[in-house]
Specification:
The complex is a heterodimer.
Chain A: H1 2-21, H2 35-46, H3 49-66, H4 73-91, H5 97-123, H6 127-158
Helix pairs in contact in A: 1-2, 2-3, 2-4, 3-4, 4-5, 5-6
Chain B: H1 2-10, H2 12-29, H3 32-44, H4 48-98, E1 106-116, E2 124-127, E3 140-143, E4 146-154, E5 159-163, E6 171-175, E7 181-186, E8 192-197, E9 207-210, E10 222-230, E11 237-244, E12 253-259, H5 267-272
The chains are: A mainly alpha, B alpha+beta.
Chain lengths: 165, 278
């Protein structure tokens, strides 16, 4: 259990460093992949709802700590995203890599929906602007991240690690 | 009480979500002062180890940016060096073609200031080198900022240096950008000016260097920077006011330019020539 905790913590720290150093260098038309949502998805995918919820909360809180535009905004959106990642893990079949990618896309939509809902609540942004932002930012970002998600997905497909199911 | 605990354990997933969401919502709705207090608390407890990692990460980012900037700078400087080398070769070739004599050479003799002129105007200083150190009359004295003055009297181990700020001193100067020449003058040892023709395109900030025409200083030693241009006093000439680059209040370590004598060596004879009016 402790070994698993430290392994995931190490992976999260590594991806956080990559997200703040390497990822800005591979930005395309202002769109950059979100490796933190990706790792959150895999925490929910490989573990359970509760680890995913708390991982999402602390990961989001860390983001809020270092860029506190609205303190708690990332914490809430990643908590909800982690919860649904864990729930999808339990309720739906998760062997098919294509289906995994669709679920990841859905997690992105949920994450950004909560994120923008908080923004709308705090800054009185009109809902139309939020809708435009969801289409112009969320979907390209999710698709870009899917490219990186293919790496572990294919690894899992060709070299299955023997998960719980 | 037990059933509450049992209920929470039974629905721990939903309660986990509710608990973390509730904390997040409290953070979102908290006033800025409380948010700042929470951030302070987090920085001193939970995120303290992460601070070290983040600061190193930021350093890596800075190193990447610095590396890119330095690469651009290296390319720019390499281009400049190549261009200057090319011009240097061309200069040498043209000098050879014109049979130009090479520029005179000199060496720097480090000296210390051992005495100041006690007068308020402070026109001269005494430095710690003389005949024994092969110092001769009219040798220029400089520091790292520019021209200090010239040797006017030599003894065994000491020399008297007339400072540039001495009102009786006259120094030929040249404005580096325009090539205009003039004579540096002062009336009170504080305000320095050069009389130039009114049409000379001299601007504030231009650098004045020694012209090399006086026979004492070699060409190109920094003298001062143009501070103001006064055109009111004379319709034909303008006074270009200079700020000298040397700080005469803090002279300690200086250099005597031991150079082979120019026609400045005949200065005494030149000064003794009497011109008749006819």
């Amino acid at each position: 259990m402790i070994k698993v905790f430290f392994r995931w913590t190490g992976l999260v720290v590594l991806l956080y460093i990559l997200q703040t150093t390497i990822v800005p260098l591979i930005t395309v038309f202002g769109i950059k992949p979100d490796l933190l949502v990706l790792v959150l998805f895999y925490i929910g995918f490989k573990n359970d709802v509760i680890p995913a919820v708390f991982a999402g909360f602390f990961l989001g809180l860390t983001q809020d700590f270092y860029s506190p535009v609205i303190l708690g905004q990332n914490a809430l959106s990643k908590t909800v995203a982690g919860f649904f990642a864990g729930v999808f893990n339990e309720k739906v079949m998760r062997i098919d890599p294509i289906f995994q990618l669709i679920l990841l896309l859905l997690i992105f939509v949920i994450h950004d929906a909560v994120f923008f809902a908080v923004e709308m609540f705090k800054t009185d942004t009109p809902i139309q602007a939020i809708g435009v932002e969801m289409v112009s930012s969320t979907l390209p970002r999710a698709l870009y991240t899917l490219f990186f998600a293919l790496i572990p997905a294919f690894r899992e497909y060709f070299f299955p690690s023997g998960g719980r199911r | 009480m037990y059933w509450i605990f049992h209920f929470i354990v039974a629905h721990r997933r939903v309660f986990s979500l509710l608990l973390t969401s509730l904390v997040s919502l409290l953070l979102i709705t908290a006033p800025p002062v409380k948010q700042a207090a929470v951030l302070r608390f987090l920085s001193m407890t939970v995120f303290f180890p992460l601070q070290a990692v983040t600061s190193r990460t930021m350093k890596i980012r800075n190193i990447f940016a610095e590396n890119r900037r330095l690469k651009r700078e290296v390319i720019r400087l390499s281009t400049t060096v190549a261009q200057l080398k090319d011009e240097s070769y061309e200069n040498k070739r043209l000098r050879d073609m014109l049979n130009f004599t090479p520029k005179f050479t000199y060496d720097f003799l480090p000296v210390r200031v051992i005495a100041y002129d006690p007068s308020p105007a402070q026109k001269s200083i005494v430095v710690s080198a003389g005949e024994k150190e092969r110092v001769t009359m009219w040798m220029p004295v400089v520091d790292e900022s520019g021209v200090v003055g010239k040797v006017v009297q030599v003894m065994h181990h000491i020399s008297l240096v007339q400072l540039l700020k001495d009102p009786s001193n006259r120094t030929g100067v040249l404005f580096r950008r325009t090539g205009a020449i003039g004579i540096l003058e002062t009336e009170n040892g504080r305000d320095f000016f050069v009389r130039c023709r009114d049409h000379e395109p001299i601007e504030i900030g231009d650098t004045a260097v020694t012209s090399g025409l006086g026979g004492i200083y070699p060409r190109g030693l920094t003298v001062g920077i143009v501070r103001r241009i006064d055109t009111i006093r004379d319709p034909l000439f303008k006074r270009v006011m200079l700020a000298l680059t040397v700080n005469f209040d803090h002279l300690e370590e200086l250099f005597v330019l031991r150079m082979s004598s120019q026609w400045g060596a005949f200065r005494t004879e030149l000064d003794s020539i009497e011109f008749s009016d006819d």
